[in-house]
């Protein structure tokens, strides 16, 4: 059972990153319009999220994201030991997803991104992006709504209303630091993103526990 869960998290994150990085490469090749390229990247990511969450949720919960795993661990929905396995699987899966995109588009396999994504605006954006992600997950659970479409809709929107284009995922950010393409982020900028993502997720978890508790009763 544990092996299937870890495989689900690794494969799901790999396919998610392949969709993010691959669609960014494709869009960049097909158009010089940055807005159009971002739109294509957004649509591919949102569509992939619906499929991946629907497919893998019955197996592992379809976290694909260390901050999601962190929040559910704090709520004792999964054990700390399994959570560590999830995070390792997500990070390794994300890296494999980046490499797969490079292979498909015949790019150098090993790359380091040179795209700068730093500064207070970016960090605030990632805090908000992660806050909204966790909030919409618990909101969907509380409303008994479809989590896959809820999360996909939020990420699709957040691509456009956040200055950072809503990474909201430390494992995906790590994987994207290994591609010097449209979706990349400099490794030096990762700590700021990670800190903001964790902070946003923790605040959202605490807020959701208060907001949805009366309804749950």
Automatic annotation (TrEMBL):
Annotated transmembrane regions: 37-59, 80-103, 123-141, 153-173, 193-212
Instruction: Report the subcellular localization.
Output: Membrane
Pfam families cross-referenced by the UniProt entry:
MIP
> How does the protein associate with the membrane?
Multi-pass membrane protein
- Keywords of this entry: Membrane, Transmembrane, Transmembrane helix, Transport
InterPro entries according to UniProt: Aquaporin-like, Aquaporin_transptr, MIP
The primary location reported for this protein is membrane
- Sequence similarity: Belongs to the MIP/aquaporin (TC 1.A.8) family.
The protein's name in its UniProt record: Aquaporin
State the species of origin: Cypionkella sinensis
